[in-house]
Design a protein that fits this description.
The chain is an alpha/beta fold and 300 residues long. The protein is built from 4 helices and 17 strands.
């Protein structure tokens, strides 16, 4: 599979691609995400698609022909720190150059803003399709990788009472709020950016199969997240995958590398409320439910 393409961010480099620099926010309902190929040997898309949301926020997506999970990654830049949420599903820096991609964005930011930026690498949860790229960031200058268990996450973000308390992280004139939401994974967190009003929901809520490993914890987490969304302005809720098609209630099979008719990525507070109401109606008994835009899938 060919992975060389263009990375446009005021300069060009091989193996990356993104939208040009701009100040206004990108309409995420209109973004055409790379979605794999019927024949991955003939795929010519970039290994990583990079979309600049606004002047200091980026969304990255892994090519499905590199890994079928095709996770999304999110980069927030402040005056002093950058925060990368997740590192993707592939460790190999040749097949999936996530460190170089992120480093190029930050280097350009530093030149433009005349700043010196520390990079924090954190995770929406600890599953391998969101942490495999960590290896590329290890032992790199000005880079801190947050650990993958509850105690490490609590300690780094200074969360005093897990999972009921939230915590603030200051990136330098930019505040992001960390919200524990265990249920999909013990260490699942959501992230709210107070600047863009974007809420990251990880694998806990996205247009696809919502795998629930701890039903009671998940129901409580989605209730807390819904309460948070009702108290704060939400521009978009962004999860880590797209698995649904544009046809209501229809998903792509697990493992597919070609999704030409994908569901949109962004959800809204209304969508989150629908999930919460469904969980409340289901009660304490885990319930498999197909909805137009997501599927609830209890595990164990």
């Amino acid at each position: 599979m060919k992975v060389d393409k263009y990375f446009l961010l005021g300069f060009c480099l091989l193996s990356f691609s993104c939208k040009p620099l701009h100040k206004s926010a990108t309409d995420l309902t209109k973004v055409k995400w790379i979605h794999g190929s019927e024949n991955c040997d003939a795929n010519t898309d970039a290994a990583i698609q990079v979309v600049q949301y606004n002047h200091n926020t980026w969304i990255l997506r892994q090519n499905k022909c590199v890994n079928y999970e095709a996770p999304f990654l999110f980069l927030f830049l402040g005056n002093k720190k950058a925060l990368l949420m997740d590192t993707g599903a592939t460790e190999d820096e040749i097949k999936f150059p996530v460190y170089n991609t992120v480093r190029n964005i930050i280097d350009h930011w530093e030149r433009k803003s005349n700043s010196n930026t520390e990079l924090i690498v954190a995770h929406t949860h600890a599953h391998g399709d969101h942490t495999a790229g960590d290896a590329q960031f290890k032992n790199k200058a000005k880079t801190t990788i947050v650990g993958l268990n509850v105690d490490e996450v609590k300690s780094f973000f200074n969360i005093e009472k897990w999972p009921d308390a939230t915590a603030m992280l200051d990136l330098g004139n930019r505040q992001v709020e960390v919200i524990p939401i265990p249920g999909h994974d013990k260490v699942s967190i959501a992230l709210y950016d107070h600047e863009t009003k974007i809420l990251l929901s990880g694998d806990s809520f996205y247009p696809g199969r919502l795998y629930v490993r701890d039903w009671a914890s998940y129901r409580s987490s989605i209730q807390r997240l819904t309460d948070f969304a009702q108290k704060n302005k939400i521009t978009w809720i962004l999860g880590n995958h797209i698995e649904m098609t544009r046809k209501p209630g229809k998903d792509y099979p697990a493992g597919t590398t070609f999704q030409p008719e994908e569901h949109r990525l962004p959800f809204t507070s209304k969508d989150l409320s629908l999930l919460n109401e469904s969980l409340k109606k289901a009660g304490e008994k885990p319930s498999y439910e197909i909805h137009d835009d997501f599927i609830i899938v209890p595990k164990n």
